[in-house]
Amino acid sequence: MIKSAIIGVSGGRARGLAEAYRHVSRGRLVAVSSRRRDKLEAFGSAFDVPARHTDYREMLEREKPDLVHVNTPPSVRLEIFEAAEAAGVPAVLVEKPLAIQGEDFLAIQAFTRSARVKIAVNHQLHFHPRRNWLQRKVRDGAIGRLRFIEASAGMNPAYQGTHALQAVGAFNPGAAPVDVFGQVSGAEGLTETPRHHYAPDECTGVINYDNGVSALLRCGAVAPRVIIGGTTNVHKRIAVYGERGFVHWTMHGWESRIDDKYERGEHVYAEEDILGQAAMTEAMIDWLAEDTAVHPLNIDSALTDFSVILGIYESALSRAVVTLPFTPSPDLVGRLRRALE
After folding, report:
1. Partner residues linked to 200 by β-bridges
2. What are phi and psi of 82, to 5 degrees?
3. What was the pLDDT predicted at 192?
4. 64 and 176 share a domain?
5. Exposure check for the chain: N or C terminus, fewer CB within 10 A?
6. Based on the domain organization, do 130 and 120 belong to the same domain?
7. Is the entire prediction scored with pTM above 0.90?
8. Is pLDDT at 229 greater than 80 in this prediction?
9. What pLDDT is recorded for position 10?
10. Do 312 and 184 lie in a common domain?
């Protein structure tokens, strides 16, 4: 039985992490940390977590967890990775986005070259039962050779863009992005906030992959709405087209047309999400047990996805196609802020 801990207990995301342990057979939550003592005690009591710390470094040293969930603003990602490495923590599951702009992306990339800690990014949608079923169908050739993928999210690129890009990779596994052409608009998401999820309000990106597949990414107001009403966070979707048909997943339902046979259905997002979160954690335990069982959400794949986001920013500023991989120019977010305000 592995020992798990959570850094940062604010918001619904932390509750989702803890609740998922009801479905994790090989792990238990033994410790949590938060700078806010009131939130720490309330969370620890709600989920019967015995060890509670206001200093996450102290928690890592004293409790020696096998797996740490990181639920903090992206501005402290690298600091926590380095602390986990120094404390000998075997594995970290970190909330998205992995980074915000080029400087932290490059610093995290450099860290991973020699780090021993295994890191994956919390894109639990990959493990939602219905989406996972559709991913397997596509992987097994149900729609034939892939032609085109369309992915979108109602929130800005920092909040949900990497969710959509991870979905593209999940349906097009093993393919590498080779170039991107992007556009952005809106400066509200670039203003100072405690969560530090700085990004333009909207973006579009056309991404080409080395296997000939092309993808369209849309985030923000330019993304299609998948249900009537609802808050912006509920509009994630992906449609995958092949020679024999297509599959389409949203947070609330799915459809497919394969060889002229049409099927559709609905699902309850909250029910899918807790099972997806648990399966993602179990996959991390598999990786802890066996080095060859690399987590599908591993940090290398996450860095590739985030490089596409940065490529969209670079493309919008330069008004040119960006060849991938690339080294982002300095202060991308600041330059976007100045260009869009």
Report:
1. none
2. -65, -40
3. 84
4. no
5. C
6. no
7. yes
8. no
9. 84
10. yes
Domain identity same for 278 and 310: no
Q: pLDDT tens-digit profile of 67-87?
A: 999 999 998 999 999 999 999
- Written as six digits, the tokens of 254 are 């799915």
Instruction: Specify the pLDDT at position 230.
Output: 77
CA-closest candidate to residue 72, choices 107, 44, 100, 45: 100
246 and 286 fall within a common domain: no
Q: Could you tell me how far CA 131 lies from the centroid of its own chain?
A: 15
Q: How far is CA 39 from CA 33, 52, 71, 194, in A?
A: 10, 10, 14, 17
Determine, yes or no, domain membership for 139: yes
**94, β-bridge pairs:** 70, 121
Do 263 and 130 lie in one domain? The reply is yes
| CATH code at position 245 | 3.30.360.10
One-letter amino acid of 112: T
Residue 13, pLDDT score: 87
One domain for residues 94 and 108: yes
- Is the CB of residue 235 less than 8 Å from the CB of residue 224? yes
Q: Which residue has the higher pLDDT, 294 or 195?
A: 294
Q: What average pLDDT score do residues 232-247 get?
A: 96
Question: Could you tell me the pLDDT band of residue 243, with boundaries at 50, 70 and 90?
Answer: very high
Mean pLDDT over 263-269 rounds to: 96
